[in-house]
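Journal club prep — side note

Before the paper discussion, L.F. wants everyone to see what a predicted structure for a comparable chain looks like in token form. Sequence:
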Amino acid sequence: MKDESKKFVRWRREMVEKQIASRGVTDPQVLDAMSKVQRHLFVSEALVDSAYGDFPLPIGEGQTISQPYIIAEMTQSLDLKGHERVLEIGTGSGYQAAVLSRIVYKVYTIERNHALFLQTRKLFDKLKYYNIVTRYSDGTQGWSEQAPFDAIIVTAGGQEIPSPLIQQLSTGGCLVMPVGGSNFQELLKLEKTKDGIKTTNLGGCRFVKLIGQYGWDR
């Protein structure tokens, strides 16, 4: 077990150095979080040896865990300082939420697939990620009872940014989401200011469909 532990520590270090930092992610909080969160615990046992590879992996139910670099880039683009309340749409296996939880005050995360919701909540409790609050719901509607949020991250692609999410974003906050077609999207960063909305295109990406009232049909 000691050798196995050292192996994962080495793989995480190499992941951060070769896949993330080398591509321009410089936020020390993001690099530190990704060097500590045990990504191999968020995939199936059959995929443990591939957990730190430079690619997305299936997590069941037709969903995926994103490529490490994409997770790092999306997290860095939120310009987090540490005090934030962040909403995540699409919990999946929980890895993105776990990374965020090491940086911010509290993470609220919504998953529409009940099997994934139950599985991931149990994992958060087992790993003692107590500042992650989960909900089984349609993420495209946001979480109005807990709004406004300092940042919102959407881990599935939609044709447009759901209007409830923009409404639930604090003035001064950032929202990051893949927007485009069903097979390819552009990663957009939306900044909500007192003067209006500023949108920045961070580049091409590929995510599973964002399903819900303000997303794709099933």
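L.F.'s comment for the group: The longest strand covers residues 169-180. Keep this in mind when we get to the figures.
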